[in-house]
Amino acid sequence: MADTSMDDYMTSAIWDAFLTDRDRKVFKAAGYGVAGLRPERPALVLIGFNAGHLSSSAGIAGAASAMKQACELAVSARARNLPVIHVTGATRNDAWDKPAEDGRPAGANPIASEEFDDEIAPETTDIVIRRQAPSAFFNTDLMSFLNVLGADGVVLAGGQTAGALRATAIDAFSLNLRVVIAQDACFDAWESSHALTLCDLNAKYADPLPTADIVDWFTTLASDAFVLPTGSPDKRLDLMPAATSRRT
Amino acid sequence: MIWDSFLSERDRAAMNARGATGPNGLGRKPALLVIDVSWGFAGDRPDEPILDSIKRWPNSCGAESWQAIERISALCEGGRARGIPVLYSTGRARADAWDIGSWAWKNSRTKEQVPATPQDRDANEIVAPLAPKAEDILVYKRKPSAFFGAPTATHLRRLGCDSVLLTGTTTSGCVRASAVDAFSHGFGVSAIADGCFDRAQSSHAIALFDIAMRYGSVIDTEAALAHIEALPDPESATRPVW
Q1: How far apart are CA B208 and CA B211, in angstroms?
Q2: Minimal Cα–Cα distance from B120 to chain A, Å?
Q3: By the 8 A CB rule, do A177 and A136 touch?
Q4: A171 in contact with chain B, both atoms CB, cutoff 8 A
Q5: Mutate to test the interface with A, among B184, B189, B204, B217 (most CBs of A within 10 A)
Q6: Per-residue pLDDT of chain A (248 residues; tens, 9 = 90+)
Q7: pTM, two decimal places
Q8: Rounded to an integer, what distance in angstroms lies between the CA atom of residue A208 and that of residue A210?
Q9: With b meaning 16 or more CB within 10 Å and e meaning fewer, what string describes B157-183?
Q10: N- to C-terminal Cα separation, chain A
Q11: Nearest to B94 by CA among B104, B106, B86, B82
């Protein structure tokens, strides 16, 4: 909890190059950025590892390498029977209910863009959350699932860092959950937004950590702490009225 | 724009190539939101540099706060003159600070801020130049977003609002969290850049960039006042009806 380590952390951090000299002094003098509380019963929450972010044509630089880190996290979480929760969108195929969050049009096939990449596809004991707003908590069952699991915090990975991941982190903070960010398992189309989001989260809301440290930490946790789903594939809800539904 | 000098080379090139921004957040029935412009966030000496101000007010955003407060004051007057609801948020906490929860986890000075400050003033009191009028609306909150644990969305619906004009502080904290929640609730989102302030210059600039790219419009006070002025029929603005 000592803030003496912050000097090293702030100057070696990805965001340091984006800060002004005054910003560095202000963060330190105002007491921000000390190490937060580590969850004792963490759930791993993977956000936005879907086709729209990962496709080779319209995807986001850094998403594929973030996914490799996230796969490591998922494997190590499952090895300790920690909850693994996947978050993606839910949309009609005319995208009426999908505001252009990042200014990009929804694309020709909005439903396909929300499907998980094969490499990180949910296993049958994982939990799937579908959202229509940036935060994975907004109008979803995520908090009720965390309650039934008895989780006291979340480990977040995915993207976009300054969009869904940040919005989810802020809601988790507001819900008094402990928040850890897998800093090398996040991606954003804008590197400036990515860096400053990690800076802001570290200052006030969450602890960014490297994936390797999180994997090490997971191995120290009990493997019988959670009662997980016994295994059943997630069924996607069809949001289009049947008469006009046309699936390709 | 203010973010230009804070963007990386790669991002600046991508933005110039793309030109795309977030959705247009300007609506026909806006509410003016004034987020957390309290002594705790603005300090109590308008010209005091931030590094001096935060010695006494750990959350202070220093002299920039007071430049924005002048703009917010003009926006409040312009909005009230056109019947536009002005909604203020500010923080609250129990005297024993039990309810600050996660705020205490990442800041070594939290205990100085709650429950009492060494000053005569309550850190959560709205600064005197912006003191809410009787017809304004005040919501109290404990977390970043003005929508979290507060009746803000209910009030905006009751007022028939379709959008929010965001001012206040901090740009990257409570203003931004409120922008994201307003967007999620389906309200149009506009942030008024020179009516927002933050303790960190980089966080301020990139938060506005993120809002402009993802959630809505970023405009200045002049454009916001022009928008308010051009709205149809000020009599049609809805006031509380109960």
Answers
A1: 5
A2: 20
A3: no
A4: yes
A5: B184
A6: 334 344 444 557 999 999 999 999 999 999 999 999 999 999 999 999 998 888 867 678 899 999 999 999 999 999 999 999 999 988 888 888 876 655 555 666 778 888 888 889 999 999 999 999 999 999 999 999 999 999 999 999 999 999 999 999 999 999 999 999 999 999 999 999 999 999 999 999 999 999 999 999 999 999 999 999 998 877 777 887 765 545 54
A7: 0.92
A8: 7
A9: ebbebbbbbbbbbbbbbbbbbbbbbbb
A10: 54
A11: B104
CA distance A118 to chain B (A): 27
List the single residue in B with minimal CA-CA distance to A190.
B11
The CA distance from A89 to the nearest CA of chain B, in Å, is 13
- Report yes or no: A30 at the B interface, CB cutoff 8 Å: yes
A32 touches chain B (CB under 8 A): yes
Q: Which residue of A has its CA nearest to B110?
A: A31
- Distance between CA atoms of B214 and B230, rounded to whole angstroms? 26
A25 has a chain B CB within 8 A of its CB: yes
For residue B138 the two structure tokens come to: 């005040």
d(CA A103, CA B22): 4
* Facing A100 at nearest CB: one of B8, B23, B149: B23
- Whether the ω angle into residue B115 lies within 30 degrees of 0, i.e. cis, is yes
* Secondary structure (H, E, C), A31-77: CECCCCCCCCCEEEEEECCEHHHHCCCCCCCCHHHHHHHHHHHHHHH
Best B105, B117, B185 member to test A by mutation, with max A CBs in 10 Å, is B105
Pick from A37, A100, A201: nearest CA to B104: A37
**Do B11 and A191 make contact, defined as CB atoms within 8 angstroms?**
yes
B81 to chain A nearest CA, in Å?
32
Structural tokens at position B23:
């959705």
Sign of the alpha-carbon torsion through A50, A144, A137, A189: negative
Which of A158, A212, A153 shows the shortest CA–CA distance to A185? A158
